[in-house]
Structure formats: structure tokens, C-alpha cells
Amino acid sequence: MSINVLVYNGPGVSQTSVGHTIHSLRTLLRPNYSVNTITPQALTDDPWPASCALLVIPGGRDMPYVSALEKANPRIKEYVKRGGSFLGICAGGYYGSAHVEWEVGTPLEVIGDRALAFFPGTAKGCAFEGFVYESEAGARAIDVQVNAAETPRTFKGIYYNGGGYFENAETLQSKGIRVLSVYTEGLAKGKAAAVACDVGAGRAILMGPHMEYPITLEPAAAALKRSYPDINDSEIAELERARWDMMKTMLELLGLHSPYKTSEDVPSRSPGPLPQVLVSTPSNPSIVSRYLDVLRSICPHETPNRLQDANDTFNFHPSANFTSILARSRERRVAEEDLGLLERDIVIYEGGCVPTNDQTPLFNLETFFNHLSSMRSSLSLRDKGDGWGMGEALLYGEIITSTQTLFDKNPTLLSALPYPTLSLASHQLSGRGRGSNIWLSPSGCLQFSLLLRPPQGFRSTSLVFIQYLFGLAVVEACRKAMPGNSGEQVRLKWPNDVYAAIKNESTGKEELKKLGGILVTTNFSGGLVDVVIGCGINVLNPLPTTSLSQLVPPGTQSELTMEKTIATIMPVFEQMWDTFLSHGSFEPFMDLYLTRWLHSYVPRPLQPSIAPQTEWPDSCGSDQLVTLTTVTPHQAVRIVGITSDYGLLRTLPERGGAGAPFIDLQPDGNSFDMMAGLIKLKR
After folding, report:
1. What is the three-class DSSP state of 531?
2. Region label for 49, one of left (φ > 0), alpha (ψ between -120 and 50) or beta (otherwise)
3. Nearest Cα to 217, choosing from 311, 130, 141, 144?
4. What is the pLDDT of residue 339?
């Protein structure tokens, strides 16, 4: 059954376009379809066509698509020819055409053929003057006349920034081309702004304007105000309803079915966050009392159950109120732009009590604590005296904004909370990734953040190793939680990603699929450092997303659950953390870490970081050859390992010969593109 809508997310895409595409498609299509992103590698290797109802290539830059999707193009074409649906927006519209001519005669000129060729002619652009890369200088709200329905209709206020038109589309009806809309102004007045293309048994729609951008959100809202400075709120709302009508019509032409009959039915708001519960392991009910003491000390006297912090305002409630608060929150609908204005509700369970499974249907707290206790016993973890083990104090919410920002954006709460504190969510509305990356939160993804506070005297140079240590704990925990040897496929990619190494049965080669990532943030205050470890791991996600459950051989009995996975990760990491602190270095884990990573490790001692390589080693920490683009000219290097002093990625020039110095790279300044074999500057 075709239930997946897949949005390309790889080199060239505009993250703004990806975000608005996902938001608009989910708003219109859920619960009928699941909307998620897909990478170039997944488009090339994974069995996505079987369950794909629509493939979308959003806005961005067409030229990077050419190289990133070169290997995927034959599968995309075959998918559409066999009855699939394709939507190309702006740069995706150019990419879906046979030939591109863009800004000809200017420094931005792009001319060339494209492989998909769903539109058999030329896509030209820009349709309006003034385009500037990475800018809103040429952006505007435009009018288009849509001919997709029985009666032509003019739609106003559609966001435009760099899109093209489809030359002579009106003359190509014999080749299965239908003009869906035309520009009513600009350089391309009267020319096709969107076309439908019959491709074998399937269909593609290509368009220049951005119909996926909500008119009420940025950057479309600002463009609308520039184009129509006197427009009022009721007129904006009417234009937004019209945009939903146009988008719904286009999706219906592609064979998709929205649960909403008209734009009046489309929800302008989505389900908002639900309350979190503060609970502790039943074996140590005094834990929550410690939290209550802290909360009483930081909440103002006049509002003892309320804390206004830098990013969030928290309201604390007794467990007796959970049912009513949960019911009220489930009925609430929130506009995307208002998420940051909502207050957080935290319900406190004392005496070792936990909510019923009916109250937390996506995560069984009793089962989690049972698994946690069992795993702690199997690892012989000692009692913490006045403290507690990792995972034994838990903040859980079915839907929250972000487990990470709960800690690192609220300094008053962060500095006062006892540790370790685990924050866990079944769904996040705005999860944070490394740099400017955003974690999407599909069903089946385990998402959590862990608050730690290293002891006084902890060396700041050791902080970088925490991401390595936690990544190693995740990999080792998977080996314990998964049946048989299926967990052995889980590996590490420098500096902070978790991958699966899967053997392709047809080629016999090992293929790499991302399972998750790790984000570590630090906050210094009063001579102490608060460490927040954020992690997202795909555990039970359905295809085409790669998850742990898919690594289990068919027919194998598996007890892999969200509860068991996190209840295994916490004690495994705790055991490593204790060793890490007692030794004061990462040295006890170095060989195991390098054995578990993806760079073909062969154990050997690492040389001092400042010493030149005096002879070519017979065996290296890695035999992976990559191109270092952080130097000029670019240089071919082999990955050797990581340095034991500062945790830098150690590389050795491929052609340096005897005496060539190592090149050491910081994890926070560089990005490792495994697919392209590049180490590049992180931007």
C-alpha cells in the first residue's frame, strides 16, 4: 500500500522549503499518509518505491541535485513510469525538466540538460527580475491563474523566489503535457507556471512558485506585506484558504486523497505539547522529594507552583490533576508560530507512583523501570547512596517541543535540577540537531536528553569525549537489547552519528544507513559545568526510514521496544561514565571505540598529536581514504583515529610519505560527508 510521502532532503535543498513542504503536506494529508524526508542514498538504495504515494523535490539549488541524485535518477524515473507521482517545486521544477536555461547572460547563468525530463521541453527562469541567492531581495507575492479545475481561478499572494516557467508548454499536449497555471505578470506573463506531465502510468507536476509556503508564516508573510502593504488580516486568512484549495487540487491530480473536503475543513492549528510527568523508580521513591525541595527553592514565593525561566514558563501540578490536564491538552490546537508562547505543564508523581499505561499509551513507565532495574542488576551497578542511577529520575512527555531545550535554554531550572535527570519524549515538535540541523520526529524514534554534572576538577579538555563515550554506549546497548547478533550491525561515524552497516544481499557489499545522532551541549556556571546529552535513535520506524527493528532477521523473535532500548542505554552509559570519571580520560575506551566505528579500524598505538609521522605505518586506525576540503588545494588523506588528548580526528596525507605530519581536525568545525568521501568545513 502506498502510504508514504517522501520529501527529498539532501545537497542543494533549502531547509526553509523542506520545512514548509513537510508542514503543508502533513496538514493536508494526515492521517491518510505519513510524510517524511528521504536522502539521496536512500533514494538510490532503499526499497522506497513500493510504499511511496508521492516523491517531492522541494526548492533550493538545481545544480547540486544533478550530482547528488545522479545514481537515484533511474529509480525515480522508473518509479513514476510504473504509476508513481512526482512533485517538483521551484528548483525541483527545473530539475524535473529536460533542459534548463536560468539567468542566461548573467553571472548566475545555468544551462544544461536534466536526466528526469518529465517535462520534455525547457524550464526557463527567472520569471521575475531581482533574484539574489540566500536572500529575500527578489522574493515577492504573485498572482497565478490556475486552470487545473473546471473553472479557471486567479490565486493571489503565492510566494515566489527564483522559480521558472515552462517554455511552450501549451504546444505539448500531444506529449501528455497540461498547463495547470500561468503567470499573470512579470517577465513570464502568460507563460506556464505549473504543468502536469503524463509519464508512462504515472504523473509529475512541476511548478515555479512556492505553493507550499503558508502565507501566514515567514518568509511568505513578509513578501505578502511588501507586495500588498494595505492587506488586512481577514484578507490574508482568505488568501491562505485559497492556497490550501490550490494545493489540495494539485495533490488530487497526483492521486492523493486529503481527509478534508474543502479548505474550510483544513485545520489551521495542530496538536500542541502535552504535559510531562516527573517520576522515579519505585525502588527509590525519595528521588522525587529531592526535586520538590529544589522546585520550592527556585519558584517565587507568591507563585510556588510556577517558574518563569529564560525560554519557558513551567507550571507544576500534583499527580491527582494529571487526567484533567492531559484531557485539556489533547483538545488544544496550536498554530506553528505560537509554539514558543506555550507554557510547559509538569505533573509530579510522588512515592514511586507512575501514571497508568492508558495515560501514557506510547511509553509504559512501569515496564521501563522494570527493564532498567533488571539491566542495572546484570551490570552489577552499585547503589549511589544519596544519589540515583541514570534513568531512575525521569521526565516523560508524549508530545513536547524539545527535550534538549527544556534543559539548555532554561538556566534557572538547569542549574538547580538534581542530576542525573532523563527527559524523554515520544514525539518532539522542534527537536534540535547538530549545528542548525533540525531533528524530525517520526513515530518509532526514541528521543531523549540526559542532564549530567561532572565533579569539580573535571578537565574541560575531556568534554569533547562525552559525545564519543555516549555514542559508544548506544552501540554497545544495541548489542545487548537486540536479539542474536543483529546489534553488531550498529556502528559509529565520527563525530556523533550512529549508523547501521547492512550487507546488500544482491551485491555482497556493506551499505551504510543512518540510525540516529547525538548532540552534547555544555553550560558553565560557578566553577561547575552542566552537560546535556541529546540523542535521537530510530528504533521502530517503518520503511523507508532505517531503524533497529529492520536489522532483526525475519522470523526472529524480538522483544525490541522503546522501553527496553532506553532502559539498556542508560545503565550501559552509567557504567562507562563511572570508568571515564575514575580514569580521567577516554583511554580505557579507545580501542573499543575505534573497533565500533565505520572507518575500518585496525588497532595500533596513536602517535602524539604534535609529532610528525616518521614512517608509513603498516596498519592504520583506518584505511578509509577521504578528501580534505578544509585546506587549499584539497588533499587526499587517510583517517587514522582520534587523538587521546583533545579528541581530534587524526588524518594522514595519502601522498605525504615519510615525515609527513598528521592533520588533526576538530569535531565542531568540520563535517564528515560519508557518502561523498569528504571532510568539509561545517557551515
Report:
1. strand
2. alpha
3. 141
4. 67
